[in-house]
Give the backbone structure.
Amino acid sequence: MEESSIDVENSKVEAKQLKFATPILQKHVELAVFKLKTLIKNKEKGIFDNVKFNIQIKSIQYHLKFTIKAMGGKLVEK
């Protein structure tokens, strides 16, 4: 019985935290949509067409790879 009461208490704390997290998440989504619109405009301009990128930092490679390919750029992989 003690375990279930602990779970209930943790759930209440998480619900209170979500109340404050929701506006932050909304702003994050707004920023992501704004950046996607910017990417679409730049794709239409063709600024990455036939441009080759060499990403040497492995920790950011996955995230940049999608953006570069979506914009029409090419990756040079060693």
Q: What stands out?
A: Strands lie at 52-53, 74-75. Residues 1-45 form one domain. Confidence is low (pLDDT under 50) at residues 1-6.
